[in-house]
Amino acid sequence: MLCCIGDLVEDVVVWPSAEPARGTDTASRVFRRRGGSAATVAVYAATTDIPSRFVGQVGEDRLGTMLVAELETAGVDVRVTRGGTTGSIIVIVDQTGERTMLPDRGAAMELLSLPHGSLTGVTWLHVPAYSLVVEPLGTTSRRAIEQIQSHGGSVSIDASSVGPLAEFGVERFLRLMEEVRPNVFFCNQDEGQLLGVGGTTPLKGAELTVVKAGASPVTIIDSNGGATEVPVPPVTVVSDTTGAGDAFAAGFATATMNGASPQVAADAGNQMAATVLQRPGAGS
Predict the structure, then answer these.
(1) Of the residues 4, 37, 94, 243, which has the maximum number of CB atoms within 10 A of its CB?
(2) What predicted TM-score, i.e. pTM, was given to this entire model?
(3) What is the maximum alpha-carbon separation in the chain?
(4) Mean of the pLDDT values across residues 240-257?
């Protein structure tokens, strides 16, 4: 089973008709979607033959109840604590499909301990960096990682976003990764540049470093600096990149769990990521 720990929130996705004009109106399309990096990976993993679980916290509110129900309908085994206020993220998507996020993750950051049975049967734990750079969720996530690794399970970590990494501190994050020693570390080019990763330079401590570069090839770097590029199939229209990285992580992880090589796993990740690029938000 693949388990994801972290955020389950509502995404309010905004597609402006033009560059937003300051101090006045810009006509837009607005979509409300289930969001959260960890939850999104769990949902896309559930579309494969690998069982999927989500662990996190949502508020004691109607929104939290609705989001949990959506995950369960998608086939995800949900283990959540209820408390606080369910988070929301404003996602503004420009004409190229690039997104800018304004997060208020609320209860998602407040997970103090793992719900009962959260890690039972789990052989792969996926942890977005969002789940490591805030407290108390960060401490809870690190304890989960330790438990999985102590039983021989695998761990993947996604760099998540440049802003939270910079706020947490690059050197501090790099030291944490050396301690955690993930089996797979995912990042995009911007995150890799911030962390000094890319080309033939892996993340120190990771068995595999996987660097995504939009339409350019994915680079897979082993711990010795050996690098392999995997082409990305062309996508004719990119409307919204929200959730594409999480879909890639789900495809890569589940393919690896089924015995695929890193190159084949990257192909699976690319195929899953392509399915989200022409619709609003990360919700499947």
Answers:
(1) 4
(2) 0.91
(3) 56
(4) 89
